[in-house]
Design a protein that fits this description.
Length: 328
């Protein structure tokens, strides 16, 4: 997969980026504001990509994320950036619906809006996806079944919230695929807890006690798999259930190596952030009409278009055997 070959080069670029001051004359003209979902390593990586992308495109950059996964806090941060008259908002929405008015206000003030993890976001110029969401949900289920050795029983899915767009698209694609191909499995529930590490872990222990036939959990959110891994390790419940998640490699490195978490699937949020900055600069430069089917980026290839959403297909699969290759 193309993105795997970019990670080492990006790591070097991000290191360089941390020591660069945005003082060039061209950077004084434009400011891009990145807004994450929550202050976690995942969004620290997204921030690093925003900063590198800003440097590459000759603009200034600022970044903020709420300390808890709150759509209200995220809206407040975004409104503050609008008041500061930034030129572009580069947002990973906690709640697509709640940000529609925010983005409408941004557009009224001439601010370009590029989202990530929010397909077909209303009032955004474009949304960037580094994975094909339906394919990703199917892949998650296929990997879960493979790693659980097709064991019969129940499973649960964690999402950040029931309004996080990408998590719920993956969840529904995974569930549909399970019903079509793996009828030996039964969904317990979708739990909107995977941006809370403590609750994710406690819920896993509760599910194990309540459902003796629990096969495992698919955790779609940066804190889900680490929380589950921590709780399983604290209870010495190795090999009790199968855990597949979406999180940063460093957050589950030990749990992967010790078999409390079997696998994580993801993409590099820094690369998504870089694409966000590229698109924002093109829109501001009056080149929005170029971003259409047939459009291609030399480093990322040609995306599939779905409305205002650009879909690249670059998933990463991380296991105990290759987790040491990733430094985020």
């Amino acid at each position: 997969m193309r993105i795997k070959t970019l990670l080492s080069a990006l790591a070097v670029g991000l290191t360089l980026c941390s020591s660069v001051a945005f003082t060039e004359a061209s950077a004084d003209e434009l400011t891009f504001a990145g807004v994450g979902k929550i202050s976690t390593p995942w969004f620290a990586r997204h921030k690093a990509g925003i900063m590198l992308g800003a440097e590459e495109n000759g603009v200034k950059a600022e970044y903020m994320a709420p300390t808890v996964a709150s759509h209200r806090k995220q809206a407040e941060i975004s409104y503050d950036f609008i008041k500061d008259s930034v030129n572009a908002l580069l947002v990973v929405p906690n709640d697509a619906k709640s940000l529609e008015k925010v983005f409408q206000a941004a557009k009224k003030n001439g601010i370009t809006v590029i989202t990530h993890e929010s397909p077909n976001q209303v009032n955004a110029d474009f949304d960037v996806e580094l994975i094909d969401n339906d394919k990703f949900g199917i892949l998650l289920m296929d990997e879960f079944v493979k790693l659980s050795k097709a064991k019969k029983g129940k499973y649960a899915i964690y999402v950040g919230s029931l309004s996080v767009p990408s998590h719920n698209v993956w969840a529904q694609a995974a569930i549909k695929h399970q019903k079509d191909k793996y009828p030996h499995l039964e969904l317990i529930e979708i739990f909107p807890i995977s941006e809370n590490r403590g609750v994710s872990g406690k819920t896993a222990i509760s599910l194990i006690k309540k459902h003796p036939d629990l096969v495992g959990i698919i955790a779609l959110g940066s804190e889900g798999a680490p929380g589950i891994g921590h709780s399983l390790k604290s209870k010495n419940l190795k090999d009790t259930i199968t855990v597949v998640g979406v999180t940063t490699p460093l957050d589950v490195k030990d749990y992967l190596k010790e078999d409390y978490v079997q696998e994580i699937l993801l993409w590099d949020p820094a690369q998504a952030a870089r694409v966000q900055t590229i698109l924002a600069k093109m829109v501001i430069d009056g080149r929005k009409d170029e971003i259409k089917p047939g459009f291609s980026l030399s480093e990322f290839g040609a995306p599939r278009f779905d409305g205002n959403t650009l879909i690249f297909d670059e998933p990463l699969i991380v296991t105990k055997d290759n987790v040491d290759n990733y430094d985020f």
